[in-house]
Amino acid sequence: MKRGGFFCATGRYRLLWSLGGSRMNQFSIAIALVSSIWLSAAVPTAQAAPCLIVTLTGTQGGPQSFNGLAGAGTLVRYGDDANDCGTVKLQFDSGRGTTMRLSQLGVGPEQLNAVFFTHMHNDHTEGFADLVQLRWAFNGTGPKIDAVCSSDIVSPRGFTVSCRKFVTHIADAFIRSGEIAQRHSEVKERTAGGPAELVNTITFEPKDEPQVVWSSGDVRVSAIRSTHIVGNVSYRVDTPAGSVVIGGDAGNDVSAPPRSSSTSDQVEKLAKGADIIVHSTIHPIMGPDKGSGMFPYAFYRQSTAPDLGAMAKRAGAKYLVLTHLIPPIGADQQYPFKVPGKPLTDADYRKATQDGGFTGNIIVGTDLASLRLPAK
After folding, report:
1. Is the pTM of this model over 0.85?
2. CA-based nearest residue to 102, from 128, 65, 122
3. I need a labelling partner for 253 at 20 to 30 A (CA). Which of 13, 108, 171, 336 fits?
4. Is 21 found in the same domain as 138?
5. Parent domain of 26
6. Which residues in the chain come in under a pLDDT of 70?
7. How far apart are CA 241 and CA 104, in angstroms?
8. CA dihedral sign of residues 295, 296, 302, 303
9. pLDDT score of 375
10. How many domains does the chain contain in total?
11. Any idea what the Cα angle at residue 22 is, between residues 20 and 25, rounded to 5°?
12. Are 249 and 117 in contact (CB under 8 A)?
């Protein structure tokens, strides 16, 4: 374009010179374009820095309810500063109230890429039906969401634990009630079989060594066998921005004392060099010898705060996030078991963890507590 005898070229720089005649104008344009391209290539463009956000979507310990706490769950988001770490969204466990907590974060069920289950206890799974039903109602044509969990396993007591069947039959109550048919009649694009048809179930055989069970772009999720109930697993998420281990309710393979620790050797192996460990936590005050009345088997299959502190120190973690707290902060009971003495505080959990020797950052979990890497 000519402006008072000057040529204005688009691009990072301008060539402000023009010679008369059409050939000379074409020559000037060519120089301008080549110069612009060369100079643009020579100057590196800034890229948004990668980031990772870990948020507790529920911290209630066990199937009890207390003070509005949501059931067990952790949201892991990865991306960069330009999209507020939102490229990939992964939900680990989906306890009671998961969709409510996600909504407070501005994350709809349709935005999740995958849901991972550590084990088939209702306090870790009962929010999944709500999540996929809501997703189906308003995104009834897909895309599918991945549900990742361990494969079917037969307990030594003879029963089978099956995540696959749990997912397959997740909406049976809604089908039996007629709701699925009724909603499908209103919007034919919704799958006729309900939410289960929009779930892609991925199962794997748990092993004593980490194995990659899911990946997308720069995000890799590994799993390892851990002890709580049969089929229990723990996860690790690795990204360019950092790594986080989701221990779940894992405990030691030795089911009761005498033993060196209440924590899982497999989780410790998985957590080596990780930035963050998120783990369910029981306070020693609930021990069978402390007068709580708690079932010994239930106490011993959890990891205590001091032992988690010691494990996090050995693993070299920078952050230890305590969740699934037993008992909850401020509770006088872990129904039907009592909390000996007075209700516990944040400081009580923090001190118990420090007693294990951990000197890194301790986050005593509350619903929606978040940790970002790198920190802003």
Report:
1. yes
2. 128
3. 336
4. no
5. 2-42
6. 1-46, 376
7. 24
8. positive
9. 77
10. 2
11. 65
12. no
